[in-house]
Amino acid sequence: MGQCGITSSKTVLVFLNLIFWVEDEVNHSIQKVYDEYNGTNTDAPSRAIDYVQRQLHCCGITNYSDWKNTRWFKESRNNSVPLSCCKPNMNNCTGSLSRPGDLYPEGCEALVVKKLKEIMMYVIWAALTFAAIQMLGMLCACVVLCRRSRDPAYELLITGGTYA
């Protein structure tokens, strides 16, 4: 039971460390994925970016202008961002940078970090709850042992130098 408590405490420490590490890693990873975007829905980076932008209602890393620095933007030469940057209520959105009102203004990096921190907090709370239950179990075991040592009904019977 003690080993489980120690393990859950280590888990909490690992996740607390991850909270501080996650921002730097997300920035590096998201930049890499944006660089690999090719606009087709057949490769994983393109699907991932389109999915994140639609689900989190965001565009680009810090905002929609980040797309100007990507290989996809330079190769397409159409001065637009992916359609996944378009707000859902805009019917004729083409992703054109000349109509920024049709696009999500907020970047995805901050929203992804926020979502990951939310998830990690749930994991931390679960680990802390598990550790608290373990501590309660150890406390109950200690109470039973202390009562046992004072209760004459639990005295050892010694007969002839051996335990009965």
From TrEMBL:
It comes from the Eukaryota. Residues 1-24 form the signal peptide. The keyword Transmembrane helix applies. CDD domains: TM4SF8_like_LEL (cd03163). Regulates the proliferation and migration of oligodendrocytes, a process essential for normal myelination and repair. This is Tetraspanin-3. The chain crosses the membrane at residues 119-146. It is a multi-pass membrane protein. Pfam families: Tetraspanin. InterPro entries: Tetraspanin/Peripherin, Tetraspanin_EC2_sf. Keywords: Glycoprotein, Membrane, Signal, Transmembrane, Transmembrane helix. Interacts with claudin-11/CLDN11 and integrins. Belongs to the tetraspanin (TM4SF) family.
